[in-house]
Design a protein that fits this description.
mainly beta; 40% strand
Length: 143
């Protein structure tokens, strides 16, 4: 993945922080970090060194078990480690956040028209991934 230049600025907001909460809010997955928030309207998955551990499409599925999968709870457990790096693909605007112990959250852009994810930081940076792979970047100069 070739990272977008804004990845470096985002890294400063993420590296060292942990995920504090993961919520499903009707049609948006919200990943709350210490200094930032990522809202996802497309597919995401968490990959470990062994396999795909959990994905957005797994939520509320039974997969032969007596209880449905709680993707938010499983995601939070996996993402409780500090962030070590982050990248936004320059061509697709896919987001990848890597945590300690070879765990990574991958959010991919699955549309040429819809906005798959957005991120806001406490430092005033707002990034919107656009359909087709572009980014829209705003900075709150008052922050």
């Amino acid at each position: 993945m070739t990272s977008h230049p804004v990845s470096e600025e985002l890294k400063r907001c993420f590296v060292g922080s942990t995920c504090l909460s993961v919520e499903w809010l009707e049609n948006i997955w919200k990943f709350e970090f210490e200094r930032s928030t990522v809202c996802v309207e497309s597919c995401w998955r968490i990959v470990t060194s062994n396999a795909i551990a959990i994905a957005s499409g797994d939520d509320k599925q039974y997969f032969g078990h007596p209880q449905p999968v709680d993707a938010a709870a499983q995601a939070l457990k996996l993402l409780s480690k500090p962030v070590v790096t982050l990248g936004v693909d320059v061509l697709t605007a896919d987001l990848q956040i890597e945590f300690e112990e070879n765990v990574r959250l991958e959010v991919w852009n699955g549309s040429s028209g819809y906005e798959p994810w957005n991120c806001s930081t406490k430092s005033g940076l707002q990034i919107y991934a656009l359909g087709g792979g572009k980014l829209s970047i705003y900075r709150d100069l008052a922050s």
